[in-house]
Amino acid sequence: MTATTRAIHLGRQEKPKRGSLLLLIPGIASVVLLGVLPLFIVARNSFAVADDYGGITDGLTLENYTKLLDPVYSKTLLFSLGLGLLNTVVCLVIGYLTSYYIVSRPTNRQGFLLLLVIIPFWTDFLVRTFAWITILGSGGPIAGILGIFGIAGFSVIPSNLAVILGLLYSFLPTAIFPIYASMRSIDPSLKEAATDLGASWWGVHRRVILPLSSPGILGAALLTFIPTMGVFVIPVLLGGGKDPLVGNLIVTLYTEFRNQPMGAAVSMVLLVLMLASMALVGLALKRSSTKRSSTKKTEA
Amino acid sequence: MDRIVNGIARGVFVFLYIPIVAVIVYSFNAAGTNTRFDGLTLQWYVELFQDASLMQTLRTSALVAVITATVATIIGIMFALGLARYRGRGRGALLALIALPLIVPEIVLGVALLSVFSTTKVPLGILTLVLGHLIVSLPLATLVLMSSAAMLDPSLPEAATDLGCSPWQTFTRVYFPLLRPAVVAAWLLSFTTSFSNIVMSTFLSGVGSTTLPLKIYSSLKTGLTPSINALGALLILLTLVIVLLVGVSQMRRILVESRG
Q1: B226-255 burial string, b = 16+ CB within 10 Å, else e?
Q2: Which of B111, B213, B220 sits opposite A254 (nearest CB)?
Q3: Per-residue pLDDT tens over the stretch A225-250
Q4: Which of A45, B24, B73, B139 is least surrounded by CB atoms within 10 angstroms?
Q5: Is the per-residue pLDDT at A204 higher than 80?
Q6: Nearest to B239 among A124, A229, A255 (CB)
Q7: Chain B closest CA to A296's CA: distance in Å?
């Protein structure tokens, strides 16, 4: 592109284009009307009083939030928090190792390995879950094998172990993509240099690969932690519904108890947790990037 | 150490495919139970298509998914083209807004829409399902289209305009042919997002508008039948077809590059 044509391009871009702004309206309107405004209504409803018919009466109260401290709710909230954290840590560790494996392969094989992650990722969520009933349920192959060894009538489903396995299976691909994305952009000569300078396997990971892939790891944490707590199918199908997650609580409050204000309060907890973890990740990202730029300066 | 990592990673790939293989294998199992394997049969597939109420939910899901995908793609094309030419202030905010439904927990979006529809007395049905599915498909469709629109040479539409094309002609003759792979990808990804959606549908389906995932979920609560394995195998096949139609390179761009 010559200097003159570039000038023409720049000149054209500076001109305000009303037509292109009009094109944005349907998208903005959809998100505002179907996303943002409804969220404000949930926020409002969380301070409302329920009537006896599943509706809402006027009036403001904090009661829905104080009720969350009731063991009925707090137990589920704490259990979800724990399970969410556990699933996130497991997904991150396994996702990190798998991404490292993929990145270490030749480029043409990386595409195929990614495809192998993409297929289960796009497979219907329910199919991915009930497949584990096929495998682990009573009458399934695992129970059959155990039967040979004389352990008859054993079934992994329903159990919390099955829930953990189902959660890992559902969220592992979600964790792999962002970690792989940031690992891929790491210059492979950095690893070689670190090894040549005598760094051990752990040293290379702790001081080179882990810090440089931290944006992807933090992104993966965000994509795993909050959605895990909102899951409601897995605890029912694989856990027998004995230990509900926040997601089950919300579904029950809205569709069975028809207690909208209480359901709204629980939903707000999920939303606040989401904002808090986003802020935390943002802070961690900022810190890791300033740290990196300051090391760069001292090295220079 | 690297050897141990390789072992673990290979184990992960096996882990990812155990359920998929199990569903496909047991869908052909002549024994009515998963304990034995009594040879191959297509019986469960036949039973599937004879189940009238299941076929009804399949029709509902397909209808909702086609409408959702079409609307999401049209809005997505408009937004992507608008944003590609917009260099003013607030570009980042616009991007954050359109991606918002991807970050907010889907279940919260679902109850939020349910609250709106119950206060405004909109009856739950196909319309509410489409609106709910639209809000979760739109960011995906738009992100796919945006990454393609950003790569378009801005001099091409300008040349078309200079040669006397109307804005509509510029769209049909220049933009659309260039964006076609992304349009197909956006439509297919929105279609699957809607077709397999269970969270939004839990809150937004009404009497007579039960979707296929809701039907599967409710029958799974009473127990797994061989027919459900057959249905699962067909849904896995559908995933494979869609991933291949979208194309591996495009899929990679969406899932990896957009998150880098």
Answers
A1: bbbbbbbbbbbebbeebbeebeeebbbbbb
A2: B111
A3: 989 988 999 999 999 888 899 999 99
A4: B24
A5: yes
A6: A124
A7: 22
Q: Chain A residues with CB inside 8 Å of B98's CB? A: 27-28, 31
Question: Looking at this predicted complex, what is its ipTM?
Answer: 0.90
Whether pLDDT at A257 is above 60: yes
Give the residue, A291 or A39, on which the prediction is more confident: A39
Give the gap in angstroms from C-alpha A199 to the nearest C-alpha of chain B: 13
AA letter at B93: A
Q: Could you say which of A123, A133, A260 has the minimum Cβ distance to residue B236?
A: A123
Among B154, B221, B239, the residue with its CB nearest the CB of A123 is B239
B23/A19 touch (CB, cutoff 8 Å), yes or no: no
CB contact under 8 A, A141 and B103: no
Nearest chain A residue (CA) to B80? A24
Nearest Cα of chain A lies from the Cα of B14 at a distance, in angstroms, of 10
- Residue ranges of domains in chain A: 68-299
Q: Out of B17, B19, B202, whose CB is closest to A251?
A: B202
Å between A113 CA and nearest CA of chain B: 9
**Which residues, 6 or more positions from A80, have their beta carbon under 8 angstroms from its beta carbon?**
A228, A229, A245, A246, A247
CA distance A244 to A227: 14
A91, A178 Cβ separation under 8 angstroms: no
Summarised one tens digit per residue, pLDDT across range A140-163 is 777 777 777 776 666 778 889 999
CA B35 to chain centre: 34
Rounded-to-5 percentages of helix, strand, coil across chain B: 80, 0, 20
Q: What angle do CA B152, B245, B143 make, to 5 degrees?
A: 40
Which two structure tokens, joined as six digits, stand for B18?
């155990």
Q: B108 and A17: CB-CB below 8 Å?
A: no
Are the C-beta atoms of residues B219 and B16 closer than 8 Å to each other? Answer: no
| Residue B223, pLDDT score | 79
A159-180 tens-digit pLDDT: 899 999 999 999 999 999 999 9
Domain A68-299 adopts which CATH fold? MetI-like fold (1.10.3720)
Contact A141 B19 (CB under 8 A): no
Chains A, B: CB pairs < 8 Å: 276
Mean residue pLDDT of chain B comes to 89
Mean per-residue pLDDT of chain A: 86
3-class DSSP state of A257? coil
Find out if CATH 3.40.50.450 is the number for domain B52-223+238-259. Answer: no
**C-beta neighbour count of A25 within 10 angstroms:** 13
Contacts of A272 (CB under 8 A, 6+ apart): none
pLDDT value for A295: 61
pLDDT band at A206 (very low <50, low <70, confident <90, very high): confident
